[in-house]
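Kindly review this record before class:
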Amino acid sequence: MSQLKEDFGKRLQTLRLEADMTQEVLANEIGLTVESISNIERGIHGPKFDNLEKLADILGVPVRELFEF
């Protein structure tokens, strides 16, 4: 696994939990499966560029904040 993917996944999980949001809610909001969100948070997969803005918008943060780890 890539360290970048792992760090990004941990950061995404932290921001999601701070927003008091479940993986299911985030998945539904962005149009992904719960498994996809889980895989991103565990560092198995990275998000597609198209989804970075969606993730930031849903979590209420600037895109750059997704990478502050």
